[in-house]
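so my prof wants the structure for this chain in the tokens format not the other one, which i didnt know existed until like an hour ago. anyway here's the sequence
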Amino acid sequence: MLARSTDLILRAPRVVLGIAVLVLALAGIYGATAAQHLLAGGYSDPQSGSSRADRVLEDTFDRGGLQVVIKLDGPTGMQMATDPTARAVGTGIVGELETIDHVQRPILSVWQNPGLAPALVSENGTSALVVATLSGGEEDGPAHAQEIEERFTGDRDGISIRVGGQGLVFSQVNEQTTKDLAVAEAIAIPISFLVLIVVFGGLVAAALPIVIGIVAIVGTFALLRLIAEFADVSIFALNLTTAMGLALAIDYTLLIVTRYREEVDGGAQRPAAIRTTMATAGRTVAFSAVTVALSLAALAIFPMYFLRSFAYAGIGVVLVAALAALILTPALLMVLGARVDALDVRRPIRRWMRRPPPAPRPIEETRWYRLVQFVLRHALPVALVVTAILLVLGAPFLGIRFGFPDDRVLPSSASSHAIQQEIRDDFAQNLSSSVTVVASGVPDQSALADYTAALSRVDRVDSVSSSAGTFVDGRRVGAGSPGDTRGDVSIVSVATHLEPMRDEGSAQLDELRAVAPPAGTEVLVTGLAATNQDTVDAIYAHLPWVMGTIAVATFLLLFLFTGSVVLPLKALVLNILSLSATFGAMVWFFQDGHLGGLGTTATGYLVATIPVLMFCIAFGLSMDYEVFLLGRIREEWLASDGSRTGSDHAVAVGLARTGRVVTAAALLMSIVFAGIAASEVSFMRMFGVGLTLAVLMDATLIRMLLVPAFMRLAGRANWWAPGPLRRLHDRIGLSESPQPPRPATQESSDQRDESQHDEADPVPPRLG
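here's what i got, hopefully its the right format
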């Protein structure tokens, strides 16, 4: 298929490029507004008890929307609950909120609800809260919160008014993500281009991966915009699209152009060099894309649309990047011809320094070959030392804790983060810590009163309220709100001062759930603690299926690629070892807060969805490099005599030929992910830092040290498979076609003296 498609491209390369420009323009126009159609939530399981409770609140009581908190700060000494000026300002705000259609009832304030003073008035009395919820869900709720902020922020009669709450957190996360995306692109694209100039030597050649990357990003933006018409898609998928689009385009184009230069350097005519390149490196790119896409597709198993969105984005960006690399790169190489190596920046530098180009060297004299030979001679100690290092780095992973994202994912300068931190510090109770119980089928008010009283007896519960009354330690201390019951459905509100994300908050939630409801009553629990617990439980429930799917798919694909059952097992073990070290670093930095949490607020847990996301992406990217290496090693193995010495030589030559490509690709990919690490949203910074470490660790410790050490220890067994599987592979295997050995094998960055280059048909330098 690749041979036929390459022939078609080479017959009319300008037509192919013209069609691509037209498609890119249409995709750019359609995808330009993608961010406006994406959402900031999607962290919870829609089938969990907390999500079902939220839907009952929305449908039956018109409650349960995103929370908005208006904080009033008076001058020193003013008692907000009793001061006439504060009362006038506070009741005025409540009155204005009641006129806004998307503000749900009830609106809580100390002036209408004196019993809520511990939650609504600070301990020193100088601050008070007005709390409401907003309709519209995660799609429209953040915009409504922003409208509330713009309307009420300011000063009234000497009282400072600021707005926070979950709704504004979502709004500010949306806004911050859009800014961070622009920053990431501003960091990644120019720096990547400069590094590519160093790698390729020429400005034109360095521009090819950037062009392919832009095509991948624009195409995937349009695809996400289309998917958003039919499904919920997280706005954070745009960050993955930008990073993966650029990173994969660089990887794929780097591999193709490097192999193309190698073929031309070996004496092949350009059309023939392109055909051979696409039959070898192009096949590797296609196979790598399938492997990466399957790793990301496994995210669709999770019920949270935050994670499913990355499956959509991942599959889309891999597909577009691979198609762009396989279609546009050969077309560009054909159209550019010798001009692909125009504007070689090394040539004037050498002339200025009066240095001739480096002389050609056999592959056996290159530093990559010597490094691999060292590893092969000391395979066992290298394997033991590197494995020990990875295990030590991964040790903190044993203490990982998962949680739900809150305001602290934003920088401390964000208003919603600052306000919520003040509430945690200055108020006796935190309404975000409250637990809401939705009881359906309660027989009567007496049974509801007994259940409410029983909940109030749970250790460290401050109070419990329902339409049957307000209870403290099992005693009725006040009247209830009749509006908390509609038909046979009742709301029971549990006030607590415990932090919902910590162990004590989770333990209290378990005790509340253990309280037996009235006979025939169905109970659903929601609130931050319940949502957090349900989210973590859903991830743990689906994680074995996700990991199993990735492992089976990777094993099968690598078997089809190599014909071996040993190499796929090796790849799985080494990937898990590498990723455990990466996750250990994430726990050490972002959960435990070492080195200042790298500029984030350490909460004692990691946002539950991010490690899972990092696992799938990092696993797919590590397979990307695995395929690059194994493709070339297998090519050398097929050309060998099949002995153990031949196996060692294939490993050494294969790694030597791809070492520079993998190292350069890893460096460039780490630059791309480092752009995401500049994000002001903490879990996206963790995402960027984690993937940067994973890529660098995988390309160095794993690919350059552990892989050759393992393959030396395994010897000819690397290529073993049972007879039936061997015959199956011979029939349907997807490995690269072996290439005839060249009469001379050489390695240099600028193989020939410049005097051999003429303007009509200069022979380009190749990468190692």
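also thought this was worth mentioning. The CA atoms of residues 4 and 275 lie 10 Å apart.
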